């Protein structure tokens, strides 16, 4: 794989003493969709701002497309697009002019055909002559996306791109991301909708208090940290687990009315073990009235990992 963004030792410390980024190392590969997940205040937006030139790092090295972003940032930044979290644009400008102007800021020649294609892909073409101030919140969000795509970036940052938007825009957004990926554009996104990251991302990074906790392929992360949970409701409560179940990863809970299994991984091993558990119950003559099985989602893994770090930090 070809690395197009390399971050080493990136740190941002404010005068107040707040450490927003703490020795971050991260490599992004060409053509991938990378999801950066973390709770509010974790450092996601600060990291994006550092790469996009909006935040000056305290320490660290960043290279994009082979360019040192401290000494050759103009050439690197020309290939990077950003859809910010906040709605900030020239409200008095017509949509088409504002998007075309964004392209000109990067020194590119006018390309009406490209601007039209971008506006149409975001259902903005019919609004192209309207002033931005007259648009709905969802339409203003679409304008931000169009402005970020105006100069045809090779690396696109999406900071909470679908937060607070309607279902239609969310659908259009992910359709557009899929098309861009097919053209080889690399996409880094932050999102509170973890199911979107689970569906779209190739790799996932988890950040908390400015530190990267984990970066891995989504499938590998699910396999390594995923698990299966099963609750078997018994027809009659038990005082203790029978010896026949001693070798299995189970516990007796809810006053002896349930047998709970927690184990396996993201490969389906857990479901096979739950099947063995039910067979063992039948052999032991233990009747049950229901089984509730749940496989870990990416959100479950994210919550567990963040909570685990919080407990360790408090210890």
Automatic annotation (TrEMBL):
Name of the protein described by the UniProt record: ABC transporter ATP-binding protein
Keywords: ATP-binding, Nucleotide-binding, Transport
Pfam family for this entry, one: ABC_tran
GO molecular-function terms, A-Z: ATP binding
PANTHER family found in the cross-reference section: ABC TRANSPORTER ATP-BINDING PROTEIN
Boundaries of every ABC transporter domain copy: 5-234
Keyword Nucleotidyltransferase: no
SMART domains reported for this sequence: AAA (SM00382)
Keyword flag Secreted: no
PROSITE patterns per UniProt: ABC_TRANSPORTER_1, ABC_TRANSPORTER_2
Domain of life: Bacteria
